[in-house]
């Protein structure tokens, strides 16, 4: 009876977290589905801004093209950002018969946008529920429940379900990947589906392009005798997704490519100015200007057309790819020639990256006035620094205990390898940028270590109390 009551209480809290997420969906829409009063920038929408606005506008154009009878594989613009978000918005526009932009090309303010947020919450908590049913048979009861509680309530994760950013669906796909990882019997068909799922992860966030590598390393460690089957089937599924992207790009622009162009110029845009400033002992703005002047000179010499409108002509896209290749070449050469400075800059950014930021949504995504300068240099950001350090240290403390305890348990050790490989992967591909937003997918993996840490910390306390 006691066990049944505990189970009922667990499900009660689980559904409370779900309904809180739905309530937050409505709150965010009611308060922030409007044009900003926090900035003088004309046309700045509270919730749909920066990358989200790019996805939203491209989604509107794709939906209109399809309505007008255009072939799907000829819609959209340059594959610069993640593939799927703009298509999700386009699909939303088509099924609701709502234009994403009004006649003035401004974000549509009709109330149907709440549907997207509700669906995000439904998908996430639905998958979380079935993940609980799965891990309940693999891990101790305390670990299973604690993991689900953590993933349901942790504020950094929780807030993304009420945002149009790409994270919420990315989290849901991550949970599905974990579901496959802990699945015991893997047929060739299920492994092929797993490869497609990894492709879906990449479509949602470009950073997952090489995530098949840690997954395959895990399978090699865990099942060497059947590794060829895992390698072939998973890779086949993933390659199907890449071929789909490549075909789409080819039909649209005449160029076959599968990696977003944003991956080519990222180092040059976000890392190189700081490296150059450190190298020459000049201000960041001066380094930025020097790099910009060099790019302008290259564009003039090569007579490149860098027009970035949607539905671009192939020649324009070829010119931009030449431009991106040059940026990539310059960045890599400078990083190789200045390894110590590069390492120093990346380490500094990584330290910022791993500091969990559960309050970023409050300021950065909605209430922050960009006329006051960058949020990350503001007094509000400094005010939250100590609480964030304490919050992060608490989580890392239990994760450290959890990692040690799982390593000692041979039954769960292989799962630890998967968790650590995943964490290292996302640190390696994103930490150089420094933004705490990109740390959020790692929290999904930390939840398991945190829960094992809670269990073993509880055992340590009980053992010491028993002595007395």
Descriptive terms for the model:
468 residues, single chain, mainly alpha
Total strands: the figure is 0
Write down the oligomeric state. single chain
Could you give the distance between the termini?
A: 31 Å
Structural class: mainly alpha
Please tell me about this protein's structure.
By secondary structure, this protein is mainly alpha-helical. It has helices spanning 2-32, 51-67, 84-96, 114-135, 141-153, 155-158, 167-181, 188-204, 212-222, 227-253, 262-280, 284-302, 314-337, 339-353, 360-367, 379-383, 385-408, 413-430, 440-467. Helix 5 (141-153) packs across helix 19 (440-467) and helix 9 packs antiparallel against helix 18 (413-430). The longest helix is centred in the N-terminal third of the chain and has 31 residues, at 2-32.
